[in-house]
Amino acid sequence: MISGAALVVPLLSGPAFPSSLPPAPRQASCFEAPEAEGVTVFGPMREKALGWDRFLLGFLVRRIAGEQLEAYRKETGIPLQFMLSPEGSGALQSSGRQRLRQSGAAGSLQPHPCGMSVEAFVKDLGSHGLSEWLLPDWVLEFNRKGKVIGRWDVPLNAPVRAVQEDAIWVSWDPQPLCSDQSLDLKAYLVIGTDGSLRAASLPGLISEGRKIKCPRSPDIPQSEFLVCESVRDLKTRKTRRLAYQLPCD
Predict the structure, then answer these.
(1) Among 116, 186, 124, residue whose Cα is nearest residue 155
(2) pLDDT tens digit string along 96-125?
(3) 57 secondary structure, DSSP code
(4) Please, are residues 231 and 242 in contact by the beta-carbon 8 Å criterion?
(5) What is the distance between the alpha carbons of residues 186 and 88, in angstroms, rounded to a whole number?
């Protein structure tokens, strides 16, 4: 996102966005210099980013925002952040750069405290076209003995908010990519263990977990950013134990 003063834009209260949208406005601030230091654009990122901004700032309706965001995900994909994998880092220094540009997924690379982050439009977390370069974060479920019994791949810096059977809810902050305007919208991603993805906006279902001590288990990667929580399943009300990593700084 382009830096600058944030301007909160209230969501519309009118009808949902139409199936046929007007041409996206050309904004000089959106990836005008794709080879500039610190930013690399590959694939049709510019057009997808402009279309995303047009949708968020012109057609999103608060009372049905969850349904609209989910429809957009199904049709076009939504922009989510991942880490650039070591294999991807090597590819950027070789002929792999052209492959990135020609891929069906769109994305941009930007510096991140942990390395390089990738913002890509994806419809789910299991079948995106850049799987060899996009490195997701993870959430692990473990039992009383510390054995991992479940795993979810999640976008970068996506705080866990709830668990419901085979799915977890993580916070999501959908924002424009080419504008310094910002949205005030509480949204979530519902992610399945199979990589399925769904956008939602149902804050009434979300409950915070309780921090617990992380087990010393070979199944759980140890790091200074590791956090473990005890969370009640939204449906079964059973206690679930989750491990994930906080954003590095």
Answers:
(1) 124
(2) 555 555 554 545 667 677 777 778 888 998
(3) H
(4) yes
(5) 32
Question: Which of the residue ranges 68-72, 154-158, 178-182, 187-191 would you say has the lowest mean pLDDT?
Answer: 178-182
Q: How far apart are CA 242 and CA 209, in angstroms?
A: 9
Strand order in the sheet with 137-142: 148-154, 137-142, 239-245, 226-232, 210-212
C-alpha to C-alpha distance for 158 and 151, rounded to whole angstroms: 15
The rounded distance, in Å, linking the Cα atoms of 54 and 64 is 17
For 3, residues 6+ apart whose C-beta sits below 8 A from its C-beta are 180
CA 210 to CA 206: how far, in whole Å?
Answer: 13
Q: Is 36 left (phi over 0), alpha (psi -120 to 50) or beta?
A: beta
Instruction: Tell me how far apart the alpha carbons of residues 154 and 169 are, in angstroms, rounded to a whole number.
Output: 10
Q: Distance between CA 73 and CA 191 in Å, rounded?
A: 13
- The answer, yes or no, to whether residue 70 has pLDDT greater than 50, is yes
- Quick check: pTM over 0.85? no
* Residue 191 Cα to chain centre, angstroms: 11
151-170 pLDDT tens trace: 999 999 888 899 999 999 99
Q: Which residues, 6 or more positions from 133, have their beta carbon under 8 angstroms from its beta carbon?
A: 84, 85, 87, 88, 91, 100, 118
